[in-house]
Structure formats: structure tokens, C-alpha cells
Amino acid sequence: MTMNIPGDNALELLQEIADWGNTTTIILHGGSVFEFKGNFPQGSVAQGFYNLKGESGFEGHLNLDKVDHIAFQDKQHRGKQSYALVFNDKDNGCIFKIFVGRDSDGELLENQVTRFKELQTIYSA
Asked: Which InterPro entries did the record assign (predicted)?
């Protein structure tokens, strides 16, 4: 199941996710897939970008104006349930995804699943 919301919610969602703890961020670019496991960094808005200030080496500058819509992705992946926020451009191209984290046994982090579903409910209203 996937639910889409307008991209102007990106900043609020990214600030929320920065408090979740360990997540997995996937960045797709030029046919390559980059994966980062760890806390999604806090950021601040300056010069038209959301500037990530990660303490773990994950940093960057997100052009939030390019985010047209955000999908709440809720589906099976390789036989396991997965939840992700998928940030898409106007052509429905994926800019990046942030997945609910997993513990050392590969199980979803329940506190993040709860927060994901709470956000899904809030934004569907």
C-alpha cells in the first residue's frame, strides 16, 4: 500500500525522522544505489537547501523544492515487511528513500513502525 502527500511536507518529515534513531537511507543516482545505515542527520535551511549536518559522515544539501510528492510505502520486500518514506520529483522519479530501521536480527524497530503509522494517519486526514 502506498499513500502520497505533497512535497511541501518534506521539511517537517525530515525533521521528525532525525529523531527516530537508526534508519536506512537509499539514494538512487545514475544507475547506482547508495545506502546509508544510521541516524538520519539533523539539518537547517540556508541558501535554498536543507543542509544535513551528520556526525556519522552522512551529510549533504537537499533541494526540497525538487520534492514534488512523498510516498508512504508499506510493502513486502524479500519476504519481509518494510516501511519507507519515498521522496519523489515531479516526474515520479525517486530522489531518495528513508526506510524504518531494523535491529541486529533484521526485525523492524517497533517504535519507528509506530511513528511511521502515526504519520501516515495524520497526513491521510
From this structure: Heme_Transport_Util_sf, HutX-like
